[in-house]
Design brief:
The complex is a heterodimer. By secondary structure, chain A is of the alpha+beta class. Helix content of chain A is 53%, strand content 16%. In chain A, helix 13 (339-371) packs parallel to helix 16, helix 17 (479-514) packs antiparallel against helix 25 (740-774) and helix 18 (540-555) runs antiparallel to helix 23 (706-719). The two termini of chain A are 51 Å apart. Chain B is α+β, with helices and mostly antiparallel strands. Helices cover 56% and strands 15% of the residues of chain B. In chain B, a hairpin with a 5-residue loop joins strand 2 (56-62) and strand 3. Chain B is elongated, with a radius of gyration of 17 Å. Chain B starts with a helix and ends in an 8-residue tail after the last helix. The chains are: A alpha+beta, B alpha+beta. Chain A binds chain B through residues 2, 5, 12, 15-16, 18-20, 22-23, 25-27, 29, 48-51, 54-55, 58-59, 62, and chain B through 20-22, 39-41, 44-45, 48-49, 52, 63, 65, 67-70.
Chain lengths: 871, 108
């Protein structure tokens, strides 16, 4: 078919008409010449030509896109219908928009986090390099590398195109306005080539930069460069003071640059001394595989490197003892973590909601198609084929679907805006979430797919060949009601499943909140992290003096009830350090004792956190300055080693395998330091000072207010004006953040559950209202014959209840079947929590009663005379 | 008239030169000695179809009686099609006639 002809078909028709006229004239003349009179000749000519209009129509049809034009006509018709039935259309479009919007938003999250590759060139070749090792029977899947391992791997690994190690930390910048603490990444020379992101200006680190004794250098992030240098390329060759060491700026990374999960403010070269490498396993390895090398091959290669290294460095025994094996993984796995299951679960829940929406729309379309039976019958009688009518119904569904999709897209856009700004910061790749082409395709698929789904329901019911004869006055069969009932049962069942899921999340969240995490009123605990650089205090004792002075000053602020500091507070990342602890009389002298959480705390920290002491006493400043060999342990540690807290007092432990004994002078209650949903670790507390970076905890009801923060800053700067304040927040922020995964799932599932419940109420109501309307006549007769209104009411309510009961039972079976998927997100209850199931059932029942009552009341309050007369 | 032959006959008529619809109909009827009667209900749609395919082209001219008339002429593509269709037609006709009038010598 040719568009030009299509557009010029009016002209073509005029020409055709002219041509036929010409024919008539010529033929008439011919007949006149043969001797007929004018009238007879004209009649004969017409007869010879046949039906001129039919010819024109046939030619005209050749110039039309029959199908496209028909669809266009149907679409215009259905847009008119949308306008003419605002209530019906709004109900269908809004529910579709909600369903599609929620799914699209979730899909965008899913796609950004799990499907889309990491934002590095050829990112599938990137791997995180770490080891699997076993310490005291505990398996560590992702133990970082030591500097010696880095050196060995860098020298001998053949699987890597490039390789490096990096760490995250903090550093203080002075001399550029107020002192400021920044997030830094220390990276060896190989890390940037591994990631493959070229600097915006300047250069990467060279082999020279990570050799000790050369000029100290720094690479800035784009954001920091804009903030401090206003995007001036002259920043290169500037020197800035980082931890009081001058460093030359050699490059600026492009915007959005990240090292795995971290977006650093600045990058520093990681330098290792040429000899005497420290034996700490705290450097994250990262590598780019050579083309064609698989992760399994790379693992073999690194295993070979470790073996050779063990022999040359004489550490084979240690490697065997710890069962060290390389555990390389795609970098994406490191970045995304275990969030995939939760996202899949939420995606599934919202998919169920979309199904519900489809069922609802199908119901609406069905009811409407039913009321248009007569129209269909007339159209069929006038010669419309069933396919024409079916097409009409489908196009109408598509129109609703597309309108719903467009609105849903807008909703998804708004939802994602909210999510990205307010969302859980521990959701990986949050900033990468956008509505991309994939999401648009998803919307289209959702809209078209769901409209076909609910459109087909109507087509199969009403516009099937052989069904068109339903004409005026005929009674309607029970078939359509059966279809509607089935849809309602499905809706109730899905709603039940979603209610159970959201109920389980709500109960889990409640259980998390009910845990006493080892501190109280986290919103009253103001935290400030202060790092004391070496240039300010060279010796550990000096560091402690300054920290004690700051603490003393902070305690004088009005409203402060207690203050203390530790090298990390509960739920903070800094906290996850542990050391081996030997227990007198428990650890055999020739064995490696187990690793324990180890915290350095100041006197007063327990009071500031409101951590209860179950036995003994807190540290005192005399303990600190007198360097007494004393320690506190957590209740879990005490119970594990000595049975109960009281008997722990006076026992002795060692920090490490050797060294002096420390007497246990107190037992603190367990602190849920790794997250409220994880068991509290067995912890040992020491007062040994000298940590340069510590977090102060200040307990006050004024925590978080601007005035309070100003007073804190003033007191800290009175002690030393060059100390920056970092991580200024309340413990509550950290506490909430640690539960954010649960609350995120909770909110989304609760939304899904609420939508499902609403939709199923609407569904039940719709079916019953329709049934009442259909049986007006019957109800009128019954009432006229003296039926009790109450009995009539019950007739309809019973129907609603039966439908809900069936749906509820199916939902129960479904929920039990699906429950194991949610287990990993639950806390403190089983996926078959009876209370949750009962509550879901109760809510469904309430909804059923509410949805059935109004149609039933309407039936009972009909005026029999009026209904009978109207028929 | 045999299905599908009208197109071929129209093309054949136009080999002799441009003509308008009525002339084409006349030519076919006379040429077949009035055996073939052209249904006008199918002549004009056929002309339109051939035009859409680009086998014939239309132009407005003046008729013998000095009236404005729509003339059709054969395009080069139409000529090719005519040749192809004619040979195909002849094959079919000879095949059919072989079946209808078998040569006695070739049987048994």
């Amino acid at each position: 078919m040719n568009w030009q002809r299509f557009l010029q078909r009016q002209t073509a028709d005029a020409e055709q008409r002219e041509e036929l006229d010409f024919y008539l004239e010529v033929t008439t003349e011919e007949y006149i010449q043969r001797g007929l009179d004018t009238a007879a000749a004209r009649a004969a000519a017409r007869q010879k030509l046949g039906n001129a209009t039919l010819i024109r129509e046939e030619v005209y049809r050749m110039n039309t896109l029959t199908f496209a034009e028909g669809v266009w006509r149907d679409a215009r018709h259905s847009l008119r219908m949308v306008r003419l039935n605002p209530a019906f259309s709004a109900a269908a479009i809004l529910t579709l928009a909600l369903g599609i919007g929620a799914n699209t938003a979730m899909f965008s999250v899913f796609s950004a986090v799990l499907i889309r590759p990491l934002p590095y060139p050829r990112s599938e070749a990137l791997v995180g390099v770490s080891n699997r090792m076993v310490i005291q029977g505990r398996v560590f899947e992702d133990s970082d590398l030591s500097p010696a391992m880095y050196a060995a791997c860098k020298e001998n690994a053949r699987a890597f195109e490039s390789f490096g190690v990096w760490t995250v930390g903090a550093a203080t910048v002075t001399g550029l306005g107020d002192p400021e603490q920044l997030v830094i990444v220390k990276a060896t020379q190989g890390v940037l080539p591994v990631l493959g992101i070229l600097p915006h200006i300047g250069r990467w680190f060279s082999g020279n930069d990570d050799t000790p004794g050369t000029l100290e250098t720094v690479i800035l992030s784009y954001g920091y460069w804009q903030r401090k240098f206003g995007g001036d390329p002259g920043a290169l060759s500037h020197t800035i003071l980082i931890d009081f060491i001058p460093r030359q700026v050699i490059g600026v990374m492009p915007p959005g640059f990240r090292v795995a999960k971290v977006s650093p403010d600045i990058l520093l070269p990681q330098r290792f001394p040429a000899s005497g490498l420290p034996e700490e396993l705290s450097y994250a390895g990262i590598a780019r595989l050579r083309p064609g090398v698989t992760v399994a091959l790379a693992n073999q290669d690194v295993a070979r490197v470790w073996k050779a290294w063990g022999e040359t460095a004489g550490v084979s025994r240690m490697l065997d003892l710890l069962q060290v094996q390389p555990n390389l993984r795609p970098l994406k796995k490191d970045v995304v973590g275990n969030i995939g299951l939760m996202l899949a679960l939420l995606m599934g829940a919202l998919g169920l909601v979309l199904l519900l929406v489809c069922a609802n729309a199908a119901n609406l379309v069905l009811v409407r198609a039913q009321s248009r039976q007569q129209e269909f019958a007339i159209r069929a009688a006038l010669g419309a084929g069933w396919s024409r009518i079916a097409r009409g119904v489908l196009v109408e569904s598509l129109t609703l679907g597309v309108l719903g999709g467009v609105l849903g897209l807008a909703l998804a856009y708004l939802g994602l805006r909210v999510l990205v700004t307010q969302g859980p910061t521990n959701l990986p790749r949050l900033a990468e979430i956008t509505l991309d082409r994939r999401a648009l395709a998803f919307v289209l698929a959702c809209a078209v797919g769901s409209s076909l789904l609910f459109g087909l329901a109507a087509v199969l019911r009403c516009a099937r060949p052989g069904r068109m004869q339903v004409a005026r006055g005929s009674t309607r069969g029970a078939g359509q009601l059966r279809a509607q009932n089935a849809l309602v049962v499905i809706q109730v069942a899905l709603a039940f499943v979603l209610l159970v899921a959201s109920g389980l999340m709500i109960r889990s969240f409640g259980a998390l909140l009910a845990v006493r995490p080892g501190f109280t009123h986290p919103e009253w605990i103001q935290t400030v992290r202060i790092s004391i650089p070496e240039a300010l205090a060279a010796k550990p004792e000096q560091v402690v003096r300054i920290q004690a002075e700051i603490l003393g000053r902070l305690s004088t602020i009005p409203g402060v009830t207690a203050a203390g500091f530790g090298h990390g507070l509960p739920l903070e990342a800094e906290y996850h350090n542990g050391i081996v602890i030997a227990v007198e009389g428990k650890t055999p002298p020739d064995q490696m004792p187990p690793n324990r959480a180890f915290r350095i705390v100041s006197p007063g920290l327990y009071a500031a956190q409101d951590t209860r002491l179950l036995a003994g006493r807190d540290f005192t400043w005399d303990d600190v300055f007198g360097q007494r060999g004393v320690a506190l342990v957590s209740a879990a540690m005490a119970r594990e080693n000595w049975g109960d807290p009281i008997s722990a007092l006076g026992k002795r432990i060692r920090f490490g395998r050797v060294g002096p004994w420390n007497e246990v002078i107190g037992v603190a209650e367990d602190v849920y330091a790794d997250g409220v949903n994880l068991p509290p670790p067995a912890t040992v507390y020491s007062h040994i000072g000298g940590r340069r970076a510590v977090t102060f905890a200040i307990r006050s009801e004024r925590a978080g207010t601007q005035a309070f923060l100003r007073e804190i800053a003033a007191q800290v700067h009175a002690a030393n004006s060059n100390l920056p304040l970092a991580k200024v927040r309340t413990l509550n922020d950290v506490y909430r953040q640690s539960m954010v995964q649960t609350s995120f799932a909770l909110v989304l599932l609760a939304i899904a559950g609420a939508m499902a419940l609403t939709l199923s109420i609407v569904g039940v109501y719709g079916v019953l209202a329709y049934a009442v309307a259909r049986r007006r006549h019957e109800v009128g007769i019954r009432l006229a014959l003296g039926a009790e209104p109450k009995a009539l009411k019950w007739l309809f309510v019973r129907r609603g209840l039966v439908l809900n009961c069936i749906g509820g039972i199916i939902g129960l079976a479904l929920a039990i079947g699906l429950s194991r998927w949610i287990t990993s997100l639950l806390f403190g209850l089983t996926p078959l929590d009876p209370l949750t199931y009962a509550a879901a059932g109760g809510r469904i029942a309430l909804a059923a009663v509410a949805a059935s009552y109004f149609p039933a009341r309407q039936a009972a309050s009909m005026d029999p005379m009026e209904t009978l007369r109207s028929e | 008239m045999v299905q599908g032959t009208l197109d071929m006959l129209i093309l054949q008529t136009l080999v002799l030169g441009p003509a308008h619809g009525q002339t084409i109909a006349h030519a076919i009827e006379r040429g077949s000695e009035e055996v073939l009667q052209v249904e006008h209900g199918s002549l004009y749609p056929a002309l339109h179809r051939l035009q859409n395919r680009g086998w014939i082209a239309a132009f407005w001219g003046t008729s013998e009686s000095n009236r404005k008339a729509k003339y059709y002429r054969l395009t080069p593509e139409g000529k090719r099609q005519l040749a192809a269709q004619t040979s195909r037609w002849e094959q079919v006709v000879s095949a059919i006639s072989r079946i209808l009038n078998p040569i006695p010598g070739k049987q048994g």
